[in-house]
Amino acid sequence: MNIKNPVPTIHILDQATVNQIAAGEVVERPASVVKELVENAIDAGARTIRIDIATSGEGIGSIQVIDDGCGMSPADAQLAFAPHATSKIFRIEDLHQVHTLGFRGEALASIAAVSRVTLTTRLRAPGVIAGTKVVAEGGKILQTCDIGMPEGTNVLVQNLFFNTPARKKFQKSKNTELAHIYSFLEGICLAHPEISFRMITNHVEKLLTDRSIQILDTIARIYGSDIAKELIPVNLMLPFVKVSGYISRPSLTRKDPSRIMVVINQRYVSSTIISGAAKQGYGTLLPKDRFPIAFLSLTIDTELVDVNVHPAKKLVRLSRDKEIASAVAEAVNTALLHHDLIPGVAAPLRSCAPEPGTETKPDSDHGYAFSTPAPSGVSEITHAGTRTTDRQLRQTELATGMEPLETRLPVLEVIGQFGGIYILATTDSGELVVIDQHAVHERILYEQVIARTSGDHCSQELIVPFIVNRPMHEAAVLRDLLPALSQAGFILEEFGKDTFLVRSIPVVLGKLEDMAMIDEMVNDLVSEEPSGAVNNRERISRIIACRGAIKAGTVCTMEQCQRLVQQLRFVKNPFTCPHGRPTIVRFTRSDLDAMFKRI
Ligand code: ADP
Ligand code: MG
Q1: Nearest residue by C-alpha to atom 18 in ligand 1
Q2: What is the pTM of this model?
Q3: Residue of the CA atom closest to atom 20 of ligand 1
Q4: Closest ligand 1 atom to the C-alpha of 100?
Q5: Closest ligand to 108 CA?
Q6: In which residue ranges of the chain is pLDDT below 70?
Q7: Which atom, in ligand 1's list, is nearest to the CA of 105?
Q8: Cα–Cα distance, 545 to 442 (Å, whole number)
Q9: CB of 170 within 8 A of CB of 153?
Q10: Index of the ligand 1 atom closest to the CA of residue 110
Q11: Could you read off the pLDDT of 512-565 as tens digits, one per residue?
Q12: What is the 3-state secondary structure (H, E, C) of 236-279?
């Protein structure tokens, strides 16, 4: 407030200022202009859309979008620049069933408020032989005339933010702005495989998609056929929602959810609910800090989708969002359950390697490496060792049902063991697979643990109870876990100050010869940071599976290796351990040939 004029007086802002303020909501950066223009072209029924960007100095110099859609009449071409001018809705009720991307009638007015726009358009209609050209700048129409041109619309935007220096200052580097434009276009291409998009930057073609009804073709065009090949189709039809698209195998992941692309009713949107549901559909197939790649398209009754939440319409509000999210998770989960998920060594493994700095910390059982063979002393098969392994194997064998599940695993024939860690096998189609023995056994045990619900049958009483004594803070953590532990088959009783008696343990652990295992499990329970995403029951199941499974470094006989591999046939998700790490890796003959440069 100004000191000379301490009492403010109210006045109405002039239209140009109002438009500039409104523009701030719709036109945040160059990518917003591209978005609005391309969405208009789609709404106009275009079959091909061309986007031309030119950079100048450190910024975006011009943006041009050319379509072969329905075009506009001369009168509409001028009216289109007026605020709240739209051909797409008439009244608010129409919003409940809007099928176009635009409906607010703000974009052209907002863009013209902060730039110079040259629009040429020719109506696609019998008898119309010429088009119209309208030039507008800073919210004013400067020129209108007839022009010869093909049917469709061509919008050229220059001098963006010339009259809003503050907004201009907020623009990031040229490449950052281009990256925003490209990432929007990737999404829109996926949402509209039926349209051919061509993107040109400084006269260089950056992207070209063919018209196709198959979204997989578009994915291959944008992300390459290596990735497209690795994807699994998703399809689920419920009365109120249809989910379709493609998701990555668990071996192909990213450190953030930015590659979970969500399209709702052909609108490319950002939805944390849907992308969260997609990740949830993977369950234990992914580590908690990794995200899948997914292209999901949802068709939802328009009445259930509110698109009028934000001027840029990037966000939508869903009624029945919980049911929709669980449909998405179910669709993803079902797709994963019906596919062979063994990663090959070609593209996916390379791209799934964690980005620097995100590598999972190796722990005692998982910090192995190919290059460190087991110390020679360990590799001797001791009698006691074989007995323990036998007992562990028998335990999981007894628990399996009679019939193997309809499995996605190929037929595997064991050919040996390496380093006391990996089982080598061949498949019926002549590939070599390497199996992580601890990880697969952990998976087998894990599924058995979660299949058993609470009750007597999951617990076995110890003849001599085992005593656990813990420091105060650990005892407090443990005390909280007692109900969840007893559900899992661990019955602990408080026995004096910070001491517990372990009376019963889960049946799946079999006849424990080594009580130290209980101590290790308690260690895991009290030391691991509980995270919101994984409940206690789940944590306990994972710990039981990890501690009860055959350890890495255990030398197994051929027969034991075969028994272990056989058990994989009873498992729903044989392809990752409960922490989401792979259990099996496949080398095809051509992978090996390539490694030996035989081709
Ligand atoms: P909205 O898309 O919300 O209706 P816009 O300001 O983006 O608002 O566009 C205003 C109107 O101009 C649209 O409703 C449409 O009738 C017309 N229009 C804009 N772009 C095109 C185009 N590329 N082809 C045909 N008509 C268009
Ligand atoms: Mg629009």
Answers
A1: 40
A2: 0.65
A3: 40
A4: 2
A5: 1
A6: 1-6, 23-24, 311-313, 344-385, 398-407, 453-457, 512-513, 528-534
A7: 8
A8: 5
A9: no
A10: 6
A11: 667 778 888 888 888 765 555 567 888 888 888 888 888 888 888 888 899 999
A12: EECCCEEEEEEEECCCCEECCHHHEEEEECCEEECCHHHHHHHH
